[in-house]
Amino acid sequence: MVIVGCQESVDPVLETEEAFSMYGYLDPSSDQQALRIFTVDGILFPTTTDFLDAVVTSVNMDTGETIVWRDSVITFRDRSIGHVFVADFRATHSTRYIITAVRSDGREAFVDLITPPDGDVRIDNIVSSRSNVIVTMNWADVPRIIQADVSYFVRIPFPDGSDTTTVRVDIKSGRVQENSDGTWAVTIIPSSDIGAIFSALQIQPGRTPVILHQIEVKAFVVSEEWESPVGSFDPELLVQPGTFSNVHNGFGFVGGGYFDSFIFVLDDEIARDAGFSIDR
Fold this sequence. Notes:
The chain has 2 domains: 20-117 and 223-256, Immunoglobulin-like (Sandwich); 120-221 and 261-273, Immunoglobulin-like (Sandwich). The chain is built from 3 helices and 16 strands. By secondary structure, it is mainly beta.
């Protein structure tokens, strides 16, 4: 999210002693980590495909393990060039890491972060009546959730009616808020989302049965560093150098984050209230 959010609308940074801009996050759910890194040499964006003059390392401050990252040069569709440093390891939860980028002349930028813990999630409440179904999940023991997406797995018949197939429909509809006790609530409304499901599948309600199989909610759990100074996570605002930064001797933001997946099944009666068909 942070890596791709760094758009080419960023203004050039001139006459600065800062060495690098760094964007990305350590992901405890992935076996490969990635950071996008820019030099700050009068212009922010690189113009050649040469490898960056940078040695990037990460140190696990609990174990002392040091990993050297490798540069990958990417040319985007608009012909702009990006440097994404990658490393093959799985970050651990609730762990302090220091990531450093060093130039050949000794100038360096670094970030000091703690990855978020592995949280605990459960369904907190289900409100169900005809054409009105609201499901609220509760995430405990996590510092912050800044985004939630929903995937509906539904079964629909083949055109000839001989069988059914299961398809996945992704919808950006999760509402996130912090509770008074410090836990985080993610709320979805299947009775509203079903309209988007019909639209995505290009089927007409009442004519083609749509049977709900299961629902997957993915919450983006992040570390404490993810506190926006502008009150929202608008990439057009946050990507401006210095606006949202935790990089020492540089610009940008590197935190810890992961998508925590929670899958559940609604009872037939609740699924019917939300507008889905029932498998008879």
